[in-house]
């Protein structure tokens, strides 16, 4: 099996926590063997970051390349990370054996203490432990969720979709019957835990801001327009992205994304659609290359006469827009035009700016019209 | 004390003394001493700390000169007692030749301002204000006389008290007593008010320390007002050769110089005056000058006018002369500097360089001596902080003041020390020693504490600094690598317990066993590094051992201790 094929199986393969625990044990045992022979113990993982991320145009998402990195103890630049890796290995194995799950912040706090006889902490902040967790995911060929680790949950689900929670009394529930807030998306939504039972919806609408999510529910939009609504609250969390991917594929529903009209919002769309550089390895099971973008766009400003409610782009927005112009997955005429227009006018337009027309304008006019006319960006 | 010198000066400069007399006729009240009394800052006696240091400088310089001129290895004893608020008594005793009662007054009681040295010779001081200036200052601030005890070989010592009559610039001696004690040398004791003793960079202790460094043939002891005693031992048992007198070189001569020299020449024509009284002046030079001046060179030189002298100097500038003789320069010497720095600073590494003599401003020969010391007692220590210490000397005399204005400091500041592995001079345990030697030191002011930044001087010092800097850099880089390896060891060791705990939790391998193995593994890895380090050390030592000017003093076996700590 090549590295890539192995990775493909990570999410879909049926591995028990015991098997993952054994992989960690094997890795530790090979280190012990090396130490026994007075050899420098090693830890292998995939190289991450821009230099090992590949844009696969055919598949339509970002992938992790094949570059491997080896971390060894007797390397001045690696020694501390090596220590941290061994600690994370021991702790996750403990979780797996005792059937416990923890947030990535919890494991950080569990392992943080002063290194004996020094003024140094084992971890100086979650910024040090988070990357080690990703290293371990790659090293033992699995995903975080299967290490019994999860990020803080973020994102909500509303609409006519029935789910089954296998981890909680096999509760079966419809996301339109849980009150106005909908269902809080777990950080782990793997099929073994959450089963998608059925839905009558005709499409999935992903919404950047929770405020617009609430507005649409208040206006009865999902029922009226037969859609499932997911609020992602800014950049989409792992659980939300995985659920969007599953609903799109398992229910075969078109996915439409609605964000603020600025580089940050557009980047959120691209992450839902094509995946992120940080999690390039998992794109295949999280991205939705067929997703379409409904708004906000630079053209909406003229179309809906929103000139008075635009805001100035920040320096950060401008910098991000310039970077995005160069990303391979933004190389199509529609998005180049949007970015250039934004850089030219130096303005941004928020979803909520539509309230300038009327509070319900977004639900009664904007979305229904644009979706009906398939007025989308790719 | 150096009465011979003083006598020589007065006799040498009779015409000038005459000029002073003329001046005195015009401004009757304004004797030299009176003038000095009103302008004491002109000779550097200002600032409370500085005053005390300068007083000691004047006495110690006189003692050193007196001993050297008579072939005696100097032993100088300095004491400062605090008598009250900003009130001190200074006692300086030497083992010099002693002074006859006839000459005591000249040495301690007559100011010689207005005389101009006709002779060009490397000397500690170029003006003779020295000890007499101190006598003057003492009586001005306290109203007290200076007490002097002096004894010559085989004669009874005498004690006396001395003041200066400021109007007449004449010494007044009183209370002369013979002492029934065997004593050869001179001891002067004087009281000063309005000054301050501080154990600082500009204090007497630092001054004496540096004086001892630049004069390894002298033994200097010091007792501060708190009773703390310090002895700077003699490290070299031979007296430095006396500097020779040389004639002025045409290129370094000013109009005023020509007019001064021509008054005392034995030459009866301007041509013979120029030939006799100037260095490197031959028939060919005279020919060239003849072509460029508009008066007859057979003229009586004593009748030269300012305009004519100007023409001569202009001609000097236009004509090329052989560079001046550098025979008159007397450097301290590399070996001597090494011995004294090793004894007083006790550095871990030391490199010394005496450059060949060269010439500045076209006419003045000069020479530069540099030493760079690293580690041990090197550097300027304030609290926990150590920074680069700059020790400036002019003809062996420490320059403690006007640091920023000095060409020696400027040259040091323009060096890119990073190239010599000194990342930041403000945190480096480094002492830079610079001795500037010349028959004429181009001081920036009357305080004589800073050297003017003549281009040739700056460049010569920079060259010397770079030459020595390279050697110091080799050693410092080696030390840095050594300490980096040290840190590496500590770093690996500190992470071992956590790694072993984690791995043993996962695999059930024995934690203690793992720890031992990992420590052994680190040691083996470091052994390879240590071998490299050892090779590196040998290479460094070899490079520097082949260099006669560089010296490594093995540092204390601190390394072993750390190793033990690690093994724990």
Question: Would you spell out the secondary-structure blueprint of this structure?
Answer:
The complex is a heterodimer of chains A (378) and B (568).
Chain A: H1 3-12, H2 17-36, E1 42-46, E2 53-56, E3 61-64, E4 68-72, H3 79-97, E5 102-103, H4 104-111, H5 126-139, E6 149-150, E7 156-158, E8 161-165, E9 171-174, E10 183-184, E11 194-199, E12 203-207, H6 210-218, H7 221-225, E13 227-231, H8 238-250, E14 255-258, H9 263-274, E15 292-295, H10 298-303, E16 311-312, H11 315-326, H12 333-345, E17 347-348, H13 361-372
Parallel strand pairs in A: 5-6, 12-13, 12-14, 14-15
Antiparallel strand pairs in A: 1-4, 2-3, 7-10, 7-13, 8-9, 8-11, 16-17
Chain B: H1 3-12, H2 14-26, H3 32-38, H4 48-69, E1 75-84, E2 87-94, H5 101-108, H6 130-142, E3 146-151, E4 157-165, E5 170-179, E6 185-193, H7 204-214, E7 219-223, E8 229-232, H8 255-263, H9 270-277, H10 283-292, H11 306-318, H12 334-344, E9 349-354, E10 358-360, E11 364-374, E12 380-382, E13 385-387, E14 389-394, E15 397-399, H13 407-413, E16 430-438, H14 455-507, H15 511-545, E17 550-552, H16 558-567
Parallel strand pairs in B: 1-7, 14-16
Antiparallel strand pairs in B: 1-2, 2-6, 3-4, 3-6, 4-5, 7-8, 9-11, 9-17, 10-11, 11-16, 12-13, 14-15
Helix pairs in contact in B: 4-6, 7-12, 8-11, 13-14, 14-15
Q: How many extended strands of chain A?
A: 17
**How far from one another are the termini of chain B?**
63 Å
CATH-scheme architecture of the largest domain in chain A: 3-Layer(aba) Sandwich
Given as residue ranges, the uncertain stretches of chain A (5+ residues, pLDDT < 50) are none
> How many beta strands in the DSSP annotation of chain B?
17
Please, what is the average pLDDT of chain A?
Answer: 91
What general outline of chain B do the C-alpha atoms trace? globular
H-E order of chain A: HHEEEEHEHHEEEEEEEHHEHEHEHEHHEH
Write up this protein.
The complex is a heterodimer of chains A (378) and B (568). Helix content of chain A is 40%, strand content 17%. Chain A is of the alpha/beta class. In chain A, α2 (17-36) packs antiparallel against α3 (79-97), α4 packs across α5 and α11 packs antiparallel against α12 (333-345). The longest helix of chain A has 20 residues, at 17-36. Chain A is globular, with a radius of gyration of 23 Å. The two termini of chain A are 34 Å apart. Chain B folds into 3 domains: 3-228, 2-Layer Sandwich (Heat Shock Protein 90); 250-318, Helicase, Ruva Protein, domain 3 (Orthogonal Bundle), CATH 1.10.8.50; 326-568, Ribosomal Protein S5, domain 2. Chain B has 16 helices and 17 strands. In chain B, the strands form 3 sheets. Chain B has an 8-stranded mixed β-sheet. In chain B, strands 9, 10, 11, 14, 15, 16 and 17 form a 7-stranded mixed β-sheet that branches. Chain B has a two-stranded antiparallel ribbon with strand order 12-13. Chain B is globular. Mean pLDDT of chain B is 83; it is low at 1-20, 22-29, 113-118 and 557-568. Classes of the chains: A alpha/beta (378), B alpha+beta (568).
